[in-house]
Amino acid sequence: MRKRTLGTGAALVVAAVLGGGLALGWWGGGHETVTEAAAARLPDAVPDFFRRGGKHLAHFAVDPDRWKNREMNFLRRAEEGNHFLDIEDLDGKELPATNRFDAMKLVYTDLKKDPHKTGLLPYAIMENYEKLAVGFYDYRKSPENAAVPMKCLVHGGTLAHYTGDAAMPLHTTRDYDGRVQADGTVKQKGIHAKLDAFPEKFGIRPEEVSRGLEAKKLDDPWAHVMKFIAESHTHIPKCYEFDAAGAFEKPTDESRAFVLARVRAGAQLTLDLWYTAWLRSEKLPGHW
Predict the structure, then answer these.
(1) Is the pLDDT of residue 4 over 60?
(2) How many other C-beta atoms lie within 10 A of the C-beta of residue 56?
(3) CB count, 10 Å around CB of 256?
(4) pLDDT tens for residues 7-66?
(5) Distance CA 207, CA 225 (A)
(6) What is the pTM of this model?
(7) Are 211 and 37 in contact (CB under 8 A)?
(8) Among the four 28, 42, 108, 196, which has the fewest Cβ within 10 Å?
(9) Which residues contact 95 (CB under 8 A, 6 or more apart)?
């Protein structure tokens, strides 16, 4: 979802994780669907606690939207730019493949814009991908430590929120909720909420989304993420076309297939980054 304003316990959690599986699922339910679909297709090489943690991963996948609670003044401000990237506002410049602070400097100094309004989505994805890789490293070193699976599930679920956002085309454009006309009015305002709600409202389920997905190792996660966001951006005209026809409120076969394809794309990206984080963790150096 996009909004610009606005001891014993451990043992019990791990036991619950190991009993997890698919549940019925971009509102919170859409993010849960993306996440559970990805979890259902993880290969056997990934630890069992993570493969069977679909329900827990799905819960954590909604946390980044919870962090935008209007009462959380410090947290909301830090979080708000993580959910989108307005590609048009980059004026053709490439974001640095380093860190969000280099990107913020570029946007502030070269583009004279606010990076929290331009968006920092690819950095949110990469940061949480790397957190998960570090968590998996710890699991390899201390598989008996009950705290480690919990943090891996938190990092994996948080990552899944942002990969789900990347698959939603309206999270890649400043025209995320209508197009400003010459007279200052906004045409098709409300489109974002209609598309955001579609998977949950019209019964797109994890079992349907996961069908045929296979995990792939990503040789260059940053390049892959940037290419993925750029590809997602190409679907914006189709979003506006479907909305103008009322096909997000009264689905057609074509509009449902379109949304299903975007949800599947989000699940595939999530799956690939989870799997790549596991593989990368094997070769990480020690933390200290």
Answers:
(1) no
(2) 24
(3) 18
(4) 333 343 344 333 333 432 256 889 999 999 999 999 999 999 999 999 999 999 999 999
(5) 25
(6) 0.91
(7) no
(8) 108
(9) 103, 106, 122, 226
- The encoded tokens of residue 261 equal 């394809």
Structure tokens at 54: 């679909």
Q: How do residues 75-111 score in pLDDT, each as one tens digit?
A: 999 999 999 999 999 999 999 999 999 999 999 999 9
